[in-house]
Amino acid sequence: MAAKPKRAAAAKRKPQPAIDPATRLKLYRTMVECRMLEKRAHDLFMQNLIKGTSHLALGQEAVAAGFGVAMREDDYTFCTYRGHNHTYVRGVSMTAILGELMGNSAGLMRGKGGSMHLTSVEHGAMGSYAIIGAHLPIAAGAAWSAQYRGTEQVSVCFFGDGTTNIGAFHEALNFAVIWKLPVVFVCENNLYMEYTSIYDVTAVRNPAADRASAYGLEPILIDGNDVDVVYETAVDALERARSGGGPSLIEAVTYRHGGHSRADPGKYRPDDEVQKWLGRDPVPTYRKRLLQLDIDEQDLEKIDTESLAMIDEATETARNAPLPDVDIAWIDVWADGGAQWRN
Q1: How far apart are CA 26 and CA 231, in angstroms?
Q2: CATH number at residue 99
Q3: Strand ranges (DSSP E) for the chain?
Q4: CA separation for the pair 124, 121 (Å, rounded)
């Protein structure tokens, strides 16, 4: 049974102005669209239209939405195989993501990457990485490039709690601090590393936040299901990185509604724990908050309706796309765009 994480010492955050209604509605819309995208991915998998497996982030939408709204258009995103939402919030279309999951020509990479390797350099989505921890040094490298070029771009790197026990986590943090790189490391602690509670195999209670001080960083532990908190924390960290203040390490405690992947029923999690976290679902929780803040319910219903229409249209377009031409097997193989010259 997963232990309950304790709070780390609060980081010193500058007072934030109240989030304006337009931004709150954008945060809500982004979460709703992410939720519908992931639910539709689940439905298509159950219809055998998505082959292999997929790793969904149902329940974790607040992290992707909070950072997606806060980030600048030319910032960089690095994420894991659970990266559909992180890719979507950077501007990639639902059609391109669903098409990629279905392995057809409508896909973001024409079906060659699949669920675990979504990438769109055009949108600053610099890859979903299936190797645990592999992308942290790469994110630091991208930040170093931005620092060298003086662009004020920030590299934001998302990873799971299990990554905190990987050597690359410590190596990337060390160099990020030494060189004051404009990078924000975000641990999405959903309490489980695949099928094992993170607290059963980690020496500290908060796997990311409790290690921050070892690298001279403030421990930042936040409610990853509260999109307002995520957004405000993201604004702080991005401003710090952009102004030359160096990296941040944020631990956002959240929970995935389902198992690790579509092949995992998640039965190792106690029923009472699952129900407790389902009661803290970030989407309906935020909807309720907005109503309490006198946001017009018709505005929220409009977002719900428009988001459903968007995912329905994207689904039909992606489903009806043809399979990729076999000739694309010979492109995107080497840096020059081809492979024939090597054969």
Answers
A1: 11
A2: 3.40.50.970
A3: 76-80, 125-129, 155-160, 183-189, 192-193, 196-197, 220-223, 248-253
A4: 5
Residue written as tokens 């709690």?
161
Domain count, the chain: 1
User: What is the DSSP code (8-state) at residue 75?
Assistant: -
Indicate whether 223 pLDDT > 70. yes
Token pair of 182 as six digits: 């404009």
Residue range of the domain that includes 39: 21-319
Is 30 inside a domain boundary?
yes
232 within a domain of the structure (yes/no)? yes
Buried b (16+ CB within 10 A) or exposed e, 296-322: eeeebeebeeebeebbeebbebbbebe
Write the single-letter amino acid at 242.
R
- Contact residues for 223 (Cβ-Cβ < 8 A; gap 6+): 229, 230, 252, 253
**Burial of 181 by CB count in 10 Å (0-12 exposed, 13-18 middle, 19+ buried)?**
buried
* Global confidence as pTM: 0.93
Q: How far apart are CA 228 and CA 233, in angstroms?
A: 8
Query: For 123-166, how does the pLDDT look when each residue is reduced to its tens digit (9 = 90+)?
Result: 999 999 999 999 999 999 999 999 999 999 999 999 999 999 99
Flag whether 327 is in a domain: no
Asked if the structure places residue 93 within a domain, the reply is: yes
> DSSP letter at 82?
S
